[in-house]
Specification:
Belongs to the IMPACT family. The protein is an alpha+beta fold. It is built from five helices and eleven strands; from the N terminus they run E-E-E-H-E-E-H-E-H-E-E-H-E-E-H-E. The two termini are 23 Å apart.
């Protein structure tokens, strides 16, 4: 997942819907980019509404690079017959910051545990194959805090260094969240240390 150059594989946009059929059961599979664990439930709830006839919406997700967190959910299927086969495909493709979900509409014929494992694994594989997998650099996030009198200095510095602004909050003072490639972080820290009225902390 993380290689020696400090890069990792993920997706930036959701995959198209993929349909896999096995003995009249239908397995609708999807891959989504994922940054916060809290985003999982709304995604799964949305899929349940899209597929009201689905008996199960099983999924696996992984977030993080050096110390990834993951979860696999069978949603009522036999233990480890759905979530873990899906998670296994995340491992096979070497991707992180991703959610893969499979909605199953029962076709009247039981598949058995072996059949379920194969079906969920294949559906997850097809969703990942339909996704655009990209390589990204490891990044470090910082919070800049400063008064409005420092706005021009901060914005000019960010523009000159081509630093990515993730979000900003303007209240009594200004807060800007930035992200930089990890290998550039020490340089950014040194630059902003030189500005006494601008606070910088890693987040």
């Amino acid at each position: 997942m993380e290689n020696q150059s400090g890069r990792f594989k993920t997706i930036e946009t959701a995959s198209p819907e993929v349909l896999y059929k096995e003995r009249k059961s239908k397995f609708f599979a999807y891959a989504f980019p994922l940054y916060e664990e809290e985003d999982v439930k709304p995604r799964i709830d949305s899929l349940r509404k899209m597929h009201p006839a689905a008996n199960h919406v099983c999924y696996a997700w992984q977030i993080g690079i050096s110390e990834p967190r993951y979860r696999a959910n069978d949603d009522g299927e036999p233990n480890n017959s759905a979530g873990m086969p899906i998670y296994g495909q995340l491992q096979s493709f070497g991707v992180t910051n991703i959610l893969v979900a499979v909605a199953r509409v029962f076709g009247g014929t039981k598949l058995g545990v072996g059949g379920l494992i194969n079906a969920y694994r294949t559906a997850a594989q097809l969703a990942l194959e339909a996704s655009t997998i990209i390589e990204k650099s490891l990044e470090q996030r910082f919070l800049l805090s400063f008064g409005y009198d420092q706005m021009n200095t901060v914005m000019r510095t960010l523009k000159q260094r081509q630093i990515n602004i993730e979000s900003q909050k303007m209240g009594l003072d200004c807060q800007i969240f930035i992200s930089v490639e990890q290998h550039k972080a020490p340089e950014i820290i040194e630059i902003f240390k030189g500005f006494h009225k601008i606070g910088l902390k890693s987040v």
